[in-house]
Write a structure and sequence with these properties.
Layout (H helix, E strand, L loop, with lengths): L2 H23 L2 H15 L5 H12 L5 H21 L15 E5 L12 E5 L7 H8 L4 E5 L5 H11 L6 E4 L4 H9 L3 E5 L8 E5 L2 E5 L2 H9 L2 E9 L5 E7 L9 H22 L14 H4 L7
Parallel strand pairs: 1-9, 2-5, 2-8, 3-4, 3-5
Antiparallel strand pairs: 6-7, 8-9
Helix pairs in contact: 1-2, 2-4, 3-4, 8-9
């Protein structure tokens, strides 16, 4: 890093760790509540709020402005809580008499063994760190796919917090294919969030518009015949969550790998949309999920 980058990252990290220190001093529920208050009051003043407004208007044109604003404020409350909960990630577990994470399996889901690997697919629902924590605590050993923050000081902190009760192995999305292959071929699990824009992905419909989406989950499921399930996560009030494991798409390969990857990616994304529509306030609307015209020239679909 250059001197300028070190200074900038250092200043950013100082602010971040100041708030982490405050949240850490508070009991978990109090920290989460304070984070929600900050999110509700500060979030709408930040530039990403314009992205959230734009995304909600395009995705829910049938809803009134007041209804979309209510979704947006729920999102900001949740995001503030997620940030405040990072110093307390080690306290989240599905185990014990009064667990912070409860879970259920759809009647069609059985995960007794997965010799060809298992992929837990989800999106940025509620506190998205709960899915890998739950799976790790239930005995599904594996690795989390992550896109670390640009700030290296913040990235190291978040990596450490994730490993307290979640999977100790984290695979950075950039150049991750080899490690993903090794993990799945070893009969272990991969935990992936597949709802962010990927400029090198494939375009698939999401809320009626093409969104560039990672084809990795579909590609590995087809290539290795790995098991694929979809997880949803709902904040149940305060710092408590319920994770539901749903079956993956009912998919039979045709033998045309390129077309199959496109089709399965479309089916996975449709499932994510279904769950977002079911409770839109639980999802993170501040992503630039759909490309604008100026972005399209820079995007090259790949498989």
């Amino acid at each position: 890093m250059t001197l300028g980058e070190n200074l900038r990252y250092g200043a950013e990290a100082a602010v971040f760790f100041f708030f982490m220190g405050i949240f850490r001093l508070l009991p978990l529920d109090a920290a989460s509540a304070l984070g929600g208050w900050i999110g509700r009051n500060l979030g709408p003043l930040l530039p990403p709020d314009r992205t959230a407004r734009r995304n909600l208007a395009a995705s829910f044109p049938e809803k009134s402005a007041a209804e979309r604003d209510a979704i947006r404020m729920t999102m900001w409350d949740n995001l503030g809580r997620v940030v405040a909960e990072y110093p307390h990630l080690g306290k989240f577990t599905p185990l014990g008499e009064n667990p912070r994470i409860t879970h259920s399996f759809h009647t069609e889901v059985t995960l007794d063994s997965f010799p060809k690997g298992l992929m837990f697919i989800s999106g940025h629902f509620a506190n998205w760190e709960m899915m890998p924590i739950l799976a790790q605590q239930l005995g599904y050993e594996g690795a989390t796919m992550v896109r670390p923050p640009n700030n290296p000081f913040v990235a190291r902190y978040i990596e450490r917090q994730r490993g307290l009760t979640g999977p100790p192995t984290q695979i950075v999305k950039l150049n991750a294919a080899r490690r993903m292959l090794a993990t799945l071929r070893g009969g272990k699990a991969i935990y992936m969030l597949v709802d962010q824009k990927n400029n090198e992905g494939v375009p698939v419909p999401f809320f009626g518009r093409d969104a560039w989406t990672t084809p990795a989950a579909a590609a590995f499921a087809i290539k290795l015949d790995s098991r694929l399930v979809v997880a949803t996560n709902k904040r149940m009030g305060g710092a408590r969550f319920h994770v539901t494991i749903h079956p993956g798409p009912d998919f039979t390969p045709s033998g045309d790998e390129t077309a199959d990857i496109q089709r399965l990616t479309t089916m996975i994304t449709a499932r994510i949309e279904e769950f977002v529509r079911d409770d839109p306030g639980q999802w993170l609307w501040i992503h630039n999920r759909w490309p604008r015209a100026k972005d399209l020239a820079q995007m090259t679909p790949k498989t």
